[in-house]
Specification:
A six-stranded antiparallel sheet has the order 1-6-5-2-3-4. With 124 residues, the protein is mainly beta. 10% of the residues lie in helices and 35% in strands. It has one domain: Alpha-Beta Plaits.
């Protein structure tokens, strides 16, 4: 499982103790329309690193997809890593017609493999 996020079950929608506007996925601001930058998880175990033996280069184009969990994929369809659970609300945004694309803004193998992506939403 992922290692980032708030570390609270409130990252998951419908968590019974989530407080509207403070925790969880319900908020008065339209989060679907916001761009964001984040460190992605589990890059060492995902397809991109396993098949290519290297991290994606800075500037590599990416997009968000849903495969049991929200994933960041390269344009050749390989999973680079997973979004932290605090972005679980994006699944509903995708169902509403939003798409999310972006680029790798940082990739480092020291001290551990890490990849940061900058993501921008668009509506269809």
């Amino acid at each position: 499982m992922g290692s980032t996020g708030t570390g609270n079950f409130s990252d998951y929608k419908k968590f019974p103790r989530a407080i509207k506007g403070v925790t969880g996925a319900d908020d008065s601001e339209d989060k679907c329309a916001l761009a964001f930058s984040t460190l992605i998880e589990d890059v060492d175990t995902c397809e991109y690193y396993s098949e290519k033996g290297t991290l994606p280069a800075v500037g590599t184009e990416v997009y968000i997809d849903f495969k049991v969990r929200l994933v960041v994929k390269s344009n050749d369809g390989l999973i680079i890593g997973y979004l932290p659970t605090k972005y679980n609300y994006l699944r509903n945004c995708i169902l509403k017609g939003f798409t999310y694309t972006g680029v790798v803004s940082n990739a480092s193998s020291t001290p551990i493999n890490t990849v940061v992506v900058d993501i921008t939403p668009t509506t269809v």
